[in-house]
Amino acid sequence: MSPTLIAEFCLLAALWGASFMFMRLGAAEFGALPTAGLRVGLAAMFLLPVFLVRGVWTDFRRRARPILLVGLLNSALPFAFFSFAVLHINTGLTAILNATVPLSGAVVAWLWLKDRPGGSRALGLGIGFLGVTLLVLGKSGVAPVGSLAGGNTTISLLAMGACLLATLCYGVAASFTKRHLAGAHPLATAAGSQLGATLGLALPTLWLWPTQGVSSTAWLAVSAVALFCTAVAYILFFHIIEQAGPSKALTVTFLVPVFALIYGVWFLDESITGWTLLCGAVIIVGTALSTGLVNIRTVVRAR
């Protein structure tokens, strides 16, 4: 990956790491589906001006169906699943489960696109998975909240299952994008996909809209997750897919838990331990290998 792509990769991880915190603040008052619907609806509004960029509208019209479908797979369904999950499990655990995206994405890319990871990339995926597993086993150093604190175990399991379904959607969407939207303008894909997601979530959002008043904090949180963690983030994401491929793009989720845990300490008063930092380092090593940033053969030859 080029230095520019590496910078985009890190920025994307930082933005998506913040999304769990914003979703928690928004979903606590709006509810899960309205939060997801507002997220994609506001993101679509923010992105509408990009259709004025030369060639973007034309590209969108030519590829409208697959772009709209990507919106359902890559935004509407995962955002709804995660908005439900953060109401019942803490943001750190949600982000950790999100880190399984490269694993499902790699399998989907292998079976569908015949993009078989080999050598350092395969080892990196294994190391990344190990880091995520160690974090889960160590309980991430994040204080339990909600149903994790002795509440409904069934709801907790459903929330974790929702996270895994969301990651599967991301994996399928990434390979679908590579296969059916290769060469598409990143702005057309980013804006068009949010329009598709908005259409898909419009009726559930209106049906489940909260009857009580919503605070300015919740509105600001949803606006932030829409503008920064969705509109800006998806422009980066689709650009990385186009330049580096879906398998490498999806490994950004190995870094997302690290940022999410840091935000949790700073803004939500969640605790973080040395074990969590160690596991975060393991995840970063796995990410570097799986993205091709570091190649074991190159390192060995250099020695």
Portion of residues in beta strands equals: under 5%
List how many beta strands DSSP finds.
0
Major sheet details = none
Shape: globular
Describe the structure in your own words.
The chain has 303 residues and is mainly alpha-helical. Helix content is 77%, strand content 0%. It is built from 14 helices and no strands. The longest helix has 29 residues, at 216-244. It is globular, with a radius of gyration of 19 Å. The relative contact order is 0.22.
In short:
This protein has 303 residues and is mostly helical.
Topology:
Blueprint: H1 3-30, H2 32-47, H3 56-62, H4 64-85, H5 91-98, H6 101-113, H7 120-137, H8 153-180, H9 186-207, H10 216-244, H11 246-250, H12 256-267, H13 274-290, H14 296-302
Helix pairs in contact: 1-2, 1-5, 1-10, 1-12, 2-4, 2-9, 2-10, 3-9, 4-8, 4-9, 5-12, 6-8, 7-13, 9-10
List keywords for this structure.
about 75% helix; globular; mainly alpha; about 300 residues
